[in-house]
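Retro notes, item 3 of 5
We never archived the inputs for the guanosine-5'-monophosphate complex last cycle. Fixing that now. Sequence and ligand:
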Amino acid sequence: MATIFSKIIAGEIPSYKVAEDERFYAFLDINPLVKGHTLVVPKREVDYIFDLSDEELAAMQVFAKHVAEAIQRAFPCRKVGQAVIGLEVPHAHIHLIPIQKESDMLF
Ligand code: 5GP
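Structure as it came back at the time:
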């Protein structure tokens, strides 16, 4: 059965797209910690980011870096924090979170 993120990528569930290429999709988190909280996911459905191949993981990180740069332009902040949690949705993803202060990253 497709994950909720696969349904989002397929357009079956609406999302606010931040960026996309052939292999990865970035969209705003539905329950953001702060404004601009974004999720980066591979289109290939795998449970956790460490289930990706080394090459896919490296490419996803480069994609996330470019998304983080765009987020920082749209939501001026000290840094864009990155977190991997994966407790709720079994489809690999990286959280990108604009942060002004440490508590912005508290889940
Ligand atoms: P995690 O699996 O890393 O613990 O958290 C999953 C994240 O996905 C949560 O921050 C949650 O708000 C987000 N999320 C879950 N379902 C949806 C959805 O249908 N749409 C969007 N945009 N985000 C979602």
